[in-house]
Amino acid sequence: MAKKSFKRGIHPFDGKDYAKGVPIKKIAPQDIMVFPLSQHIGAPAKPVVAVGDRVLKGQLIAEAGGFISSPVYSSVSGTVKKLEKRKVTNGSTVDCIVIENDGQDEAVEGFGEERELSSLTGKDVVDIVTKSGIVGLGGAGFPTGVKIAPKNADEIDTLIINGAECEPYLTSDYRLMLERTDDLVCGIEIILKALPNAKAVIGIENNKPDAIKLLKEKTASNAKIEVMELKTKYPQGGERQLIYAVTGRRINSRMLPADMNVVVVNVQSTVAIYEAVYLNMPLIHKIMTITGEAVNTPCNLDVPLGVSHSYVLECGGGAKDSVKKFISGGPMMGMAMSTLDVPVVKTSSSILAYSKDEVALIKETNCIRCGKCVAVCPQFLIPQMMGRAVKHGDIDQFEKLGGMECIECGCCAYGCPAKIPLTQMFKLGKVQLRDKKAKEKEAAK
Q: pLDDT for 190-205, tens place per residue?
């Protein structure tokens, strides 16, 4: 049978061999832990602790700040030392809770105790997931409790578990599928309680044959779970591309997956749901890949939320003297880091170390109108014209060309022989367009 996929896209060097064979290793927390209140899409969480308070592992330290928001829990026991602003991965400064770890690892009552799943309703599942602070751990950061409770929950016919992990170098989801297969399957069954008329499809790229085989064996007796082999191609794990590959349905920027009767949940988020619902554990840790040619020992680590990236790198064996650049996330959609002294948050996925800063060596030239950017765009856009519109400040034209449909995957910039930073231009165009519409809306009032 032909491998399922989407149209267009690219095949960059995947870099998976660095860390894919290394089992997940758990690391201990630091003495000082930093918990940003903005670790998700939506409103920042609101602190419910004060300086001097003693907190326990698994204790709520910040509640959700609105419907689209997510609470924050402490990954250690200790004392709240500060409530202050600190820098995070993207360079912005946000409110944070700083906790001094007392080393006692004392948890809240009931932490880790198994629940009886058979008695739980779909509403129970949604409530637990929402209160546990789970968000899209594939990088999006959208609150999962909102995602699995759409208004048309009874009409959702397909739950897609995103196991594609198409971003080069990253292997944390792959390791989870191999090492915690039963927990993943249980997590899927838990989500299906909230989506009573849905069947689950686990989408996995065919560069992970052992994960495909294992999950097919584990789900063979469950008629409501299917494993689908996907073609290895970037950005196969993008939500819109994955939905099309699995169902043939298309969504755009004005739609949610639920509008097409689909819900998409990442592999790591699914395992977090298992831990929250079955083991009574809120989200307090993250699986990260430490990799790249400038890393001493590429690996996959189970990391407590709140530790610094520099500490994670040290636990992973450190970087070589030749390191020139660090990236948070993968090379396609990640961001360069000016410092590693920033905390690990829910959406942290990796530390990628390069011996060369290839971006700094790139020399941009004029567009030669070769059309390669058009040929690879998975959203069927015309990047060269969109880039020209942004360059000339014509934001209205950028919108007419479908600028808001760009998923910022980087395929166009990757394929551009003129080395034009198209993705960065489109990010700027989107910001300018949103600002323009906000001002127009304010003026209309």
A: 999 999 999 999 999 9
pLDDT digits (tens, 9 = 90+) for 94-117: 999 999 999 999 999 999 999 999
Candidates 289, 287, 284; CA nearest to 305 is: 284
Residues paired with residue 100 on neighbouring β-strands, in sequence order:
32, 79
**Are 345 and 39 spatial neighbours (Cβ–Cβ below 8 Å)?**
yes
Does the pLDDT of residue 2 top 80, yes or no? no
Q: With contact defined as beta carbons under 8 Å apart, do 311 and 2 qualify?
A: no
Q: State the pLDDT at residue 1.
A: 46
- Give the distance from CA 236 to its chain's centroid: 14
Instruction: Give the pLDDT confidence of 324-359 residue by residue, as tens digits.
Output: 999 999 999 999 999 999 999 999 999 999 999 888
User: Going by DSSP bridges, is the β-strand pair 335-336/350-354 parallel, antiparallel, or unpaired?
Assistant: unpaired
Q: Is the pTM of this model over 0.85?
A: yes
CB 19 within 8 Å of CB 291 = yes
Q: How far is CA 372 from its chain centroid?
A: 28
Banded pLDDT at 360 (limits 50, 70, 90): confident
Mean pLDDT in residue range 114-133 = 96
Residue 130 pLDDT class (50, 70, 90 cuts): very high
Q: Between β-strands 93-101 and 32-36, what pairing exists: parallel, antiparallel or unpaired?
A: antiparallel
The residue written with tokens 């860390």 in the block is: 19
